[in-house]
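User: Hey, quick favor. My workstation is busy. Could you predict this chain's structure for me?
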Amino acid sequence: MARYDVVIYGATGFTGTYIVRQLVMSKHYEGLSFAISGRNESKLQQVLDTVSKKIGKDINATPIIIADSSDEKSMTEMAKRAKVIVNAVGPYRLYGEPVVKAAVENGASYVDISGEPAVGLFSLF
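Assistant: No problem, here it is.
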């Protein structure tokens, strides 16, 4: 089983798609192995199609990993295949913990975008 340098989880959302596009356009892209992940294979393929058209480079052979934060087994399988998981699924207070847990338990590093405006509100009260 391949262990990818980076797995982008939640690649079908606005931010996830942006991350895919920026990664592929990065000067560090060559030699980097990555996969995209999410719940819906056809939507993930659509991301690859869309990004390919926008950047003028065919990335449709990018591996797809089906995973759902409500399915622990799928989270484990995704984490086993990643050196680094970039989590673009939110809100993190609802969906983040299973991803972090899978990463820790399977030796993957974890990154998220930390955009939780509600967290700041909690500190006010």
